[in-house]
Design brief:
This protein has 323 residues and is mostly helical. The protein has twelve helices and nine strands.
């Protein structure tokens, strides 16, 4: 006959332990298969889309629509394993990479530390390639022009790419974000409200910027940061253990120059030329030699030396050599 104590212990193991195991194991299984919905994805990344729109002139609706489409709402292999939300391939990329079947087998794609870095690189990718330059001449918020222009410039091979973007923008009312204001008091915009409902705020409603950890970025192999409220060339020089004269010389500005929020500040001397990427740049309305110098990480003096036939202020439409 089974000992009563052993029988009691057997019952506890048989009936109680499996229940506890199933409770503990259940949520882990659900988490592994849970995917972001399109609404959740938009809510997560709308802030950075609005910020990038104001910094670079790319409609927030286009940024979000491309990200949704290219990343499968953040659920694709490239998004999950490489934080690549825009399907950008390696090209001249020097960073980490991942190989993935796309138009051909085992193609090289860029890999980023965070999803936000993918958004930053997407903006840099569009603004530094001449084939996209005409898009920045479109009226603000012309998402249809941008969608068609991206397709014509060869961003994607799908013949319906432009219409897919437009349909996604209109179905989710992403165009509302294109008129969202920007307040320069920090690093990233905070958007409140839901564009699908009537509670979405008007232009004068509560919109503000929050500060985030400063990131060191790279252009043309040279390190830079974006200025935030309170930054000066002097304070940044102290923060990165430079002399004030060094940091102003790195950025081709006078010794007592002011500093605007969001401005690029190089932490080392810029390069003499752009060894990779676009070989030329077409100047835009109001753009200066220094603007082009900062955009591509090329010393202003070197830029002028490479373009000896161009003197004085830049005229819009001027073709500049970058190497």
């Amino acid at each position: 006959m089974l000992n009563p104590c052993l029988y009691k212990a057997f019952c506890i193991v048989l009936f109680i332990l499996p229940v506890n195991l199933s409770v503990a194991a259940g949520p882990l299984s659900d988490d592994r298969i849970q995917e972001l919905t399109r609404e959740q994805y938009i809510a997560r990344y709308k802030n950075i889309a609005v910020t990038q729109m104001h910094r670079y002139g790319i409609p927030a609706s286009i940024i979000l629509a491309q990200a949704c489409l290219e990343s499968g709402n953040g659920n694709s292999r490239l998004a999950v394993e490489a934080n690549n939300h825009f399907g950008i391939k390696c090209h001249e990329w020097e960073g980490d990479r991942i190989y993935h079947d796309d138009d051909a087998a085992g193609e090289c794609f860029r890999k980023y530390p965070t999803p936000e870095d993918s958004y930053y690189d997407h903006s840099a990718f569009l603004t530094t390639r001449p084939r996209y330059a005409k898009l920045f001449e479109l009226e603000h918020g012309d998402y249809k022009g941008w969608a068609n222009g991206l397709k014509e410039a060869g961003y994607a091979t799908n013949p319906r790419y432009a219409q897919l973007l437009i349909d996604l923008i209109e179905k989710n009312r992403l165009y509302v974000y294109d008129s969202y204001p920007y307040s320069e008091t920090g690093e990233e915009s905070v958007v409140t409200g839901d564009p699908s409902g009537s509670d979405f705020p008007a232009k004068d409603d509560d919109v503000f910027i929050i500060s985030v950890e400063r990131r060191i970025r790279m252009t043309n192999g040279k390190r830079y940061v974006l200025a935030v409220p309170g930054d000066t060339y002097r304070s940044l020089a102290a923060e990165y253990r430079l002399f004030r004269g060094e940091i102003t010389r790195f950025n081709d500005v006078p010794g007592k120059a002011g500093l605007a929020v969001g401005e690029k500040v190089y932490l080392e001397r810029k390069a003499k030329k752009s060894p990779e990427g676009p070989a030329t740049w077409i100047s835009r309305d109001g753009e200066t030699w220094r603007d082009v110098s900062q955009r591509f990480g090329i010393r202003q003096g070197s830029l002028k030396d490479m373009n000896p036939g161009i003197s004085g202020e830049l005229i819009p439409g001027t073709v500049l050599r970058l190497r």
